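Encode chain A's predicted structure.
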Amino acid sequence: MADSFFKRTYELTKLSLKVGFKELRSKDIKSRIDQAKMITETLSQMKGAAMKAGQMLSLELDDYFPPEAVQIISQLQSSGTAVDFKTIESVLKKELGAERFQQLHDIATKPVASASIAQIHTAVYKDQKVALKVQHPGVAKSINSDVALLKKLAQGFCAMTNRKMNLNPLFAEMKAVLLQEVDFEQEVEFLKKYKKHLQTITAEDQKYYSPEPITAMSTKKVITMSWEEGLGIQKWLETSPSLKKKEKLAHLILNLYCHEFYHWGLVQTDPNFANFLVREEKGDVGLVLLDFGATREYEKAFRLQYKGLIKSVYEQDFPEQIIQKAVDFQLIDSREDEETKALFIDLMNLAVEPFFTSQKKSKFNFDDRDYNTRTKELTRKFVTSLKYSAPPHRLLFLHRKLGGMSSLLKKLDVGLNLAPYWEIIFKDYSD
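Encoded structure for chain A:
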């Protein structure tokens, strides 16, 4: 492990020198594209947190920078090649110690899932089937250097496109979440807290499930938890579920998010479809939630500010009032010109349009091509016009979750009346 860490440090140092030399030689856009290629190729070979960070960055900076650059960075995907079992076994023995390790039986040598930070193996503990989430060696040590490289790359594109954006908060937020994701003790605490919240919305006709962590068999780099049965979203859809079942699943997803953010202030922000399973019992559909490494907490004051902004848009307040709330919320920089601010108002109106549709007793379909085309075109137009406003760092992971949720609802291809969710959002709310 020490050898691989020193090798990684050497490769990063070599890469930094190459990037610096490329920067000195040329200041044109082609030079920046070449930088992106060098950084992406090196980080892809070394795996680690850079893969997840690169994927997040490509999603967040889409529309901000040249498409060639974003496309290159997007090649850093969050999924990864599985680490061989001998390495995983050594991590388990080191973390759990000989006595606890011997309590695990029938450990599967092939992982059931593998990502950039960890992989999942099944085992038996006290006659119970469990899931072992085991962290890849060296991942935690790579975060600072990987994020610093990606930040340098983004700042270079900022300069080339004449944007005066402060990207420091964005990358600070990204690094904080990645550091949190490699702290499995923290994830266990989130799992416990989230499970308690789930119990408050679980009912006979509304079922949610999440793993039970086994604290005595968990450490900073290993989580042992109950094995949860269910089908992945794609496999479930391949069973040709009825429209009624798909609508039920969509309602479970929306109801969960409204409670997660607006009431609990505890959001599982990773939008990966693999983090959701569908469990059918007695003909009814339930939602299984997995992986709480990227869980974020949002304080009440922040959530109230968020609610105040969308309520102001929905109630058609004066544009000046909406812009001021957006500036206070750090969504847009006050220095942006009037045309950009007008585009922001248009974009916010489009965001609440589905609720207007539902107030008219009409169902909104998340796969509505006209709505999605208008949203995409207006977003690109707005983002292209920005000169000072960086991607809102405080909303980075929240909107990542919203984007993933929207993709999932599109995949279900159902129409829903959203009016009840507006009521859930503003329950117990006062200006």
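The mean pLDDT is 82.
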